[in-house]
Write a structure and sequence with these properties.
Low-confidence stretches: none
Strand content: 25-35%
Largest sheet: 6 strands, antiparallel
Oligomer: single chain
Mean pLDDT: 87
Number of strands: 6
């Protein structure tokens, strides 16, 4: 029998939480970023909907954003090909999380599919997260 097989390749990486959907006291999903070589926090993607236990844990680790947040004034699409925007709450970009991501990325280096939260990495600081590197042409 002839045919083809599709394999989804996933990797584990760290990212910085820059915003959440839902209330800060009970986040529904995380908007994630990494710094680029110029020191700017760039959006890389968001997580799937958080489990209740993970939401409770993360709520205790997140702080409201201060003036001058790097994403102030940004809008985030609710999904690929939609004009609907997400209602987000910006947070201090201090918390690092470990996520599982599909290796598929767009031209900007953003993950094409939602990341799966593995755990908060309170042992790491945002400067420990690898720089955003767009994919090679």
């Amino acid at each position: 029998m002839r045919g083809w097989r599709k394999y989804k390749v996933r990797e584990t990486t760290e990212a910085i939480v820059g915003a959440v959907t839902g209330a800060l006291a009970s986040p529904r999903s995380l908007l994630l970023g990494t710094y680029d070589e110029r020191g700017r926090l760039q959006y890389t993607g968001r997580t799937t909907t958080l489990a209740q236990e993970a939401s409770r844990t993360l709520a205790g680790l997140l702080s409201p954003a201060q003036p001058g947040h790097p994403w102030t004034g940004w809008s985030f699409a609710a999904g690929w090909g939609t004009r609907e925007t997400l209602d987000v709450t910006l947070v201090r970009p201090e918390l690092v999380v470990e996520v599982g991501v599909d290796v598929a990325r767009d031209a900007s280096g953003r993950w094409r599919h939602p990341a799966r939260l593995h755990r908060p990495r309170t042992d790491l600081s945002p400067t420990d997260v690898p720089f955003l590197t767009p994919p090679s042409p």
